[in-house]
Amino acid sequence: MLRLEGLAVLAAAVAAYQYLGASWGAFAMLFLLPDLSFLGYLAGPRVGAAAYNAAHSYIGPVALLTSGLVGERPAVLAFGLIWAAHIGLDRALGYGLKYGSEFGATHLGRIGRTDPW
């Protein structure tokens, strides 16, 4: 159910982006930007999980969407939609928010290989 929820967010964000008429080139360039948070893992799993979760929580995109709508700022709205779409795709693929113990432990279950081979 949580993966379907992510797919719904992805579809809604892409549809809204299309309706907004923003640049698809910008969409392509910015879509993977939240994944720079992986660099936090260079400082260890707890810092990495915190950085990843900050970039992969819906709090940031919703704040941007609200600001973009209320302030009538289409560029802010577009960035919020791109960010939400990224998170939606991650959730649809099973990549959830991380626990501080290790990268593969997420709120959606374990990711990655479980066998030693």
From TrEMBL:
Record-given protein name: DUF4260 domain-containing protein
InterPro entries according to UniProt: DUF4260 (IPR025356)
Any one Pfam family match given in the protein's UniProt record, by short name: DUF4260
